[in-house]
Write a structure and sequence with these properties.
- The protein has 1 helix and 9 strands, in the order H-E-E-E-E-E-E-E-E-E.
- It is mostly beta strands and 148 residues long.
- A 9-stranded antiparallel β-sheet has the order 1-3-4-7-6-5-8-9-2, with no helix packed on it.
- The longest helix is centred in the first third of the chain and has 22 residues.
- It is globular and about 40 Å long.
Length: 148
């Protein structure tokens, strides 16, 4: 029984490391990233945000959004509980790329990848991370064009 538990723990640990490796964009491994400030909205004037991009694996774009001084989502929209990051390529609707985790110190980040080199990044307060289109106004925006 003990050997089975140890084997199960090893399998879970290996799976976790595999997933972590898949989610880590190239610039997190000491490649140079282009970093730029995000434009904030009047609804959250004290907040600050940046977006960093770099060429990732297979020509994808590695993307990290970081925020500071961002109030809880419910303070900006009554029905909101999370912040969602959107990538909007030219001529296409915004795509939900994940929930921006914000901690008790009002700081947060999201790291992901996208196949696009040129796009708009947006952060909106939403009722859940499962929404398929923005339902609230943007808190942050930035136009991104990755240089190779």
């Amino acid at each position: 029984m003990k050997m089975r538990k140890t084997l199960m723990q090893a399998v879970v640990a290996a799976a976790g490391l595999t997933l972590a490796g898949c989610a880590t964009p190239g610039f997190m491994k000491n490649e140079k990233a282009q970093t730029q400030p995000m434009r904030g909205s009047d609804s959250s004037p004290a907040s600050q945000g940046t977006v960093a991009v770099a060429k990732g694996a297979s020509g994808n774009t590695a993307l990290t959004v970081r925020v500071k001084h961002l109030a809880p989502a419910a303070k900006l929209a009554d029905d909101a509980s999370v912040y969602v990051v959107w990538v909007e390529p030219e001529g296409a609707p915004p795509q939900n790329v994940g929930v921006l985790s914000v901690d008790n110190d009002l700081q947060g980040s999201l790291t992901t990848i996208t196949p696009y080199k040129r796009f708009k990044v947006m952060v909106t307060p939403e009722k859940s991370g499962e929404v398929s289109a923005p339902e609230h106004d943007e808190v942050f925006t930035s136009d991104v064009e990755r240089a190779d």
